[in-house]
Predict the structure of Acireductone synthase.
Amino acid sequence: MATGVHPLLVSRVTLVGKASYTGTRTYIALKNPRAAACQPRQFTFVHSSGILVQKERMLPIRSKILSREDRRLTGSVRAGLSNAKHEPGPTRRCIVLDIEGTTTPIAFVTDVLFPYARDNVRKHLMSTYDSEETKSDINLLRAQVEDDLREGILGSVPVPSDDAGKEEVIDSLVANVEAMIKADRKITSLKELQGHIWRKGFENKELIAVVYEDVPEALQKWHANGIKVYIYSSGSREAQRLIFGNTSYGDLRKYLCGFFDTTIGNKKESQSYYEISQSLGVNKPSEVLFVTDVYQEAVAAKAAGLEVLISLRPGNAPVPDNHGFATIKSFAEL
């Protein structure tokens, strides 16, 4: 069989094998199926000459001129990949996941995490009042409450200065935090404090995080295939790490490459998703897949150029009719 230099320029490639088959089904045979989870810009695809490669940076590739039978078989592989539902395509390098309603039931957050924070906020503030971490939390809350009072946000009460005394300050903070939790506000000051309260709960084994049963297997599969996975949630990065580090399936953080929270921007604003895509080292936003259960977040991510899927899990809020997005009910569909 003759060899030659294929004229196509692609990212740096490593030849890892050709398509093999049994009967009428076509399979991909990888000589080295294990890929480092967080290696930058690495994934597999079948290029036009039928050789399976791993992609990194720009270099010309050397390919074999295949026989007619080889071309027929590898063409079947390409067709199978392009027709598979939600199969990671050649331009998908990263997956960004929401938490509530996507990896984790909403009920776990609303019925377990939120009540735990509400019930323990006073105890937490009393026991850590003089720590630098809690002082920072109080400063953030003070600034937020001042804004809320100016805007007439329901449930906001003034936070006195430290001169008023520890108990009076904490009483006002507890009143504000309870109102914020009740309104399910997606604000950094609340989320930072909640994360610090939940940390104690996870450390004491009072809290065990819940994820959907298809999540661990999917994370493991994407990790093995070299697809980088990130989390973007309104919860603080610490809270995200606590959730994935303390699940009923064990510590899943080994399959994740990073965490984003509202410090990068509101989840319903397209600029937030643009900033995330700029942080991931991709060539263009469309190389990032975002999965969420919230229609407004899907719209914002699409406006920023990301690929988007809407998660339809039990208990999720309904999405508008004719919303125009592809949907999944399980990560097994990816």
Notes: Confidence is low (pLDDT under 50) at residues 1-84. The first strand starts at residue 3 and ends at 22. Residues 291 and 309 are 5 Å apart (CA to CA). The radius of gyration is 24 Å.
